[in-house]
Write a structure and sequence with these properties.
The chain is built from 3 helices and 5 strands. The chain is an alpha+beta fold. The radius of gyration is 13 Å and the shape is globular.
């Protein structure tokens, strides 16, 4: 994943990444994989804040969908 722009928000002590929709989907998939190892906190927060979630059931029903669903309006910036 190539991030073209990133900035540090010193107020919240986090990096702010500016991602394409495809990169957001990739992050959702990575967090889903992390959830499978026992930690769902990051994936849950990503869904809550950005409305993007990976769903293996969706991927098996429609392979072209990539298994990612967006809820509501998703931005192309994220905190990392």
């Amino acid at each position: 994943m190539l991030v073209r722009t990133a900035s540090c928000d010193h107020g919240i002590k986090r990096w702010r990444l500016y991602l394409t929709p495809e990169q957001m989907e990739s992050v959702a998939y990575g967090l889903w994989l992390h959830r499978m190892t026992g930690s769902a906190a990051e994936a849950n927060r990503f869904v809550r804040e950005y409305g993007v979630v990976h769903s293996p059931a969706r991927a098996s029903n429609n392979p072209s969908a990539g298994g990612v669903a967006a809820r509501g309006g998703t931005g192309v910036s994220g905190r990392g």
